[in-house]
Amino acid sequence: MSGYITEEIPAEELTRQIERAREIGDSVRSLVAATVVTDVDDDDLAEARRHIDAATEILERRRIDASFGLRFNSDGRLRNWGNAVEGIRNPIAPPVEFHAEPDHVWSELHLGPQYEGPPGLVHGGVIALILDQVLGNAAVNAGAPGMTGTLTIRYRKGTPLGSLRVEGRLDRTEGHKSFASGTISTADGLCAEAEGIFIMPRWARGLDASRQMGVGDA
Amino acid sequence: MSGYITEEIPAEELTRQIERAREIGDSVRSLVAATVVTDVDDDDLAEARRHIDAATEILERRRIDASFGLRFNSDGRLRNWGNAVEGIRNPIAPPVEFHAEPDHVWSELHLGPQYEGPPGLVHGGVIALILDQVLGNAAVNAGAPGMTGTLTIRYRKGTPLGSLRVEGRLDRTEGHKSFASGTISTADGLCAEAEGIFIMPRWARGLDASRQMGVGDA
């Protein structure tokens, strides 16, 4: 499969690159939020656009492939910077940073105005987006990764923009299928629940475990 | 409900504002994609960041509320610029522009590197995000809007980044529940299917139809 790339970046250099990636990702995230809620006049909009287009031109001076892909470094670290949920250099991603426990994964995150659906609430599809990644990571964490086969979300109440907690766990496996579930909640309680079936693709079944892990980046 | 705002913007002025919103939204979209796939050195990254932060500072000179909300104009047009799928001024949104037919809604869209999950493929959660909006809009289009209650996605094969077509239709209603379904496909065939149940919230049941429409912005 193309897009699965092996690299040999010295550990110290990779740490430095991660810092730079996080910085530019965070800068663009702030710009994205400001773009949604700005109320400046046309002159200011035009001035801002000149800066934005100048930045794009600089970043396009040299680029990688059509998309970022998954990059496995020789020191064991995985770069998934283009991932729409976790990618530190993807301004669309909050990014969600997961913590692995023996039997589940979890994260606390903050969603700003760019994730809105109904007024003041997180878009129902954004909830599905994040829960898909949570469940996929729970399967990876339990050593049973796969690509999403089926995903079901049950919305219990509107999820306000702001601070949220997500959790996911692997419930069981059947052959190459992993069954995972998870929740998204605020301090006021449960907002949505998810169940998913993740399937190890045929081409990945012969790979060693460290390479299979990338399969979970659904 | 707060965030549902009625405005009286003269038609010509609103048309002009829409043009400006689309321009700045598109500029930031290009920047987002460039950020994901750039391969420039640290000096260029720093130079780009100076422009990005300058643009953010300009846009933050004056801002609206914590989020954009839904703004109904007296000429019948709805501004949902903050919507994570459709919002023209939300750089996270592709944005998806829907076409309404008598019995279904559809759109053709292009997804760039910022929507990646597995290498070269659309993130499974992004597929759920877009299908949630498609199904919600199908319910609105059929005069039976609601907030997402349950959403189920079945992934048939990996969806490549690039050009896609989405479709959604209302299958039936039961009281305040609307049952909708939809698909996402490429020229090579079906990639994923969705079913959803959309529920008209209690507070919206007394509103006239034009205001209920905003309920579909799931």
Tell me what the structure shows:
Two copies of one chain form a homodimer. With 218 residues, the first copy, chain A, is of the alpha+beta class. Chain A has two domains: 1-93, no CATH class; 96-218, Thiol Ester Dehydrase, Chain A. The first copy, chain A, is built from four helices and nine strands. Chain A has helices spanning 11-37, 42-59, 124-141, 209-212; strands at residues 4-7, 70-73, 78-79, 99-100, 105-111, 147-155, 162-174, 177-186, 189-199. In chain A, the strands form two sheets. Chain A has a six-stranded antiparallel beta sheet, with helices on one face. A three-stranded mixed beta sheet of chain A has the order 1-2-3, with no helix packed on it. In chain A, a hairpin with a 4-residue loop joins β4 and β5 (105-111). At the A-B interface, α1, α2, α3 and β6 of A face α1, α2, α3 and β6 of B. β6 (147-155) of chain A pairs antiparallel with β6 of chain B, so a sheet runs across the interface.
Percent of residues in beta strands of chain A: 25-35%
Per CATH, what is the topology of the largest domain in chain A? Thiol Ester Dehydrase, Chain A
Q: What's the total number of strands of chain A?
A: 9
Domains of chain A (count): 2
Classification by helices and strands of chain A: alpha+beta
Mass-distribution shape of chain A = globular
CATH class of the largest domain in chain A: Alpha Beta
Largest beta sheet of chain A: what is the strand line-up? 4-5-7-8-9-6
This entry's quaternary arrangement is homodimer
Could you give the distance between the termini of chain A?
Answer: 15 Å
Q: Mind summarizing the main beta sheet of chain A?
A: 6 strands, antiparallel
Order of helices and strands of chain A: EHHEEEEHEEEEH
Q: Greatest chain-chain interface?
A: A-B, 89 and 89 residues
The count of helical stretches of chain A stands at: 4
